[in-house]
């Protein structure tokens, strides 16, 4: 049976508020929340915990997705990568610099929004419905 979940795009104004919205929708019955991490988001979408736990099929309606796309675009992505550079012991610095360069010079790098969409599309049990 497919369960429907709804993200409110107007609530998403930056990366932090994206995770606030994810936690509101998927972690409301848990006594903990996922952090601001694409890896954590990926784990959530595997269905091991939260509202998706044990669900085979999920319909994810993302209302006002264009608002989210704009707020999770180049500027938010640049800030995300720059923050990672402050912790070189944790992250692959050369990869981050390469991603920043693509954003800066070619405007062809993936934005944070693009990374989220790629992640969602990597889960065949999740059907994204932009609204």
TrEMBL record:
Domain of life: Bacteria
Pfam families given in the database record: Barstar
InterPro entries assigned: Barstar, Barstar-like_sf
Barstar (barnase inhibitor) domain mapped to chain residues: 3-75
Species classification: Bacteria, Pseudomonadati, Pseudomonadota, Alphaproteobacteria, Hyphomonadales
Annotated protein name in UniProt: Ribonuclease inhibitor
Classification via Gene3D superfamilies: Barstar-like
Similarity field: Belongs to the barstar family.
